[in-house]
Amino acid sequence: MIELPTLEAYLAAQADHAPTAETLLHIARACGEISRAVQLGAVGDHLGVAGVTNVQDEEQKKLDVLADDILGRALGACECVAGYASEEREHAHLTGRSGGVLVLFDPLDGSSNIDVNVSIGTIFSILPAPENETPTTESFLLPGRHQLAAGYAVYGPQTVLVLTVSAEVVAFTQDAAGIWRLTHDRLAVPAETGEFAINMSNERHWAEPIRQYIAGCLQGRDGVRGKDFNMRWVGSMVADVHRIMMRGGIFLYPWDARDPSRPGKLRLLYEAAPMALLIERAGGVAIDGERPLLDVTPTSLHQRVGVVLGSAAEVGHLAA
Ligand code: AHM
Ligand code: MG
Questions:
Q1: Which H or E run contains 19?
Q2: In this predicted model, what pLDDT tens digit does every residue of 245-282 receive, in sequence order?
Q3: Does some domain include residue 75?
């Protein structure tokens, strides 16, 4: 095996970001623990439902609960963390500390893929905590541009951690000893793509601009776009975004008319904002359909939002 820099060494060089770096180390350790549970699957009795419903009114899987618990414990033990909020918990958890950082996370993204051994992941976002005062729920409601760091772990054929804590986006792969090794520095999303990702089964519910955009992709070289497109849809946002990080593409989970009052399926603070920071810093574009996702000011912890992100030219084509 080749000797590659460790996550610890990479973060130690980020001197301006000491509390963020310390928090990232705790999150990375938790992701390593979640990865081992994912790998054990049925052998560890980790598959199937937990028998409870979460605040999103979704039936929790055993691994949703376990991953949430692992991250909660890791962040509770980190001296820099003043509070955290999870997609799986109704309320934010305040640690009683002030200063430092706040963390938001989707502990197990792609829950519907857990039991079928398809890639799943963890998404996280780190925000500054208010100085010299105890945080409240409102302290978490900052637009995505305020993020100090963001990232995700994808539990696939390899366990990979992608993060941004400075201007660059980097990826680490877990080695056989569970050590995170820097395997990709300066990830860059290609501006052009011929690959789109959307749940086509919702087509009849889409708004007209999305319908027209996808129709253009499907017509391929015979239609308005004049080129053929390929489609990929894993059904785990982490895996779909990771593919886009590696080779480009466009991912869409737009508003649809199934529940017109709901702005989208994905959650702004746990999923959209951290992915938007990663995508923008890697040279891509991330919008809610119109505005940059990083400029959306949250009004509640579990707020949902439309998401279109990926290769700059392709998102630009849709938004034009
Ligand atoms: P989850 O966090 O409960 O797993 O939900 C989010 C997931 C995304 O990973 C994925 O893009 C989307 O839901 C797929 O949803 P659907 O199969 O309903 O289209
Ligand atoms: Mg999710």
A1: helix 18-40
A2: 999 999 999 999 999 889 999 999 999 999 999 999 99
A3: yes
Q: How many domains does the chain have?
A: 2
Name 154's Cβ contacts closer than 8 Å, sequence gap at least 6: 119, 120, 121, 160, 162, 238, 239, 242
Nearest to 151 by CA among 265, 245, 69: 245
Query: CA nearest 88: which of 119, 120, 50?
Result: 50
24 in the same domain as 116: yes
Residue 221 structural domain? 195-319
* 125 alpha carbon – ligand 2 mean position (Å): 13
Mapped onto helix, strand or coil, the DSSP state of residue 125 is strand
Determine if ligand 1 sits within 6 Å of the CB of residue 236. Answer: yes
**Using N-to-C axis directions, what is the helix angle for 312-319 and 208-219, rounded to 10°?**
130
Residue with tokens 């051994």: 117
Ligand nearest to the CA of 111: 1
Kindly list the distances between the CA atom of residue 28 and the CA atoms of 32, 212, 248, in Å, as whole numbers in the listed order. 6, 41, 25
- Please indicate, yes or no, whether residues 51 and 96 belong to a single structural domain of this protein: yes
Q: Residue 312: enclosing H or E segment and its boundaries?
A: helix 312-319
Is residue 264 located within the same domain as residue 291?
yes
Decide whether any atom of ligand 1 lies within 6 Å of the 314 Cβ: no
Cα dihedral 142/254/194/192 (nearest 10): -30
Ligand 1 pocket test target in 125, 237, 302 with most atoms within 8 Å of CB: 237
pTM, to two decimals = 0.97
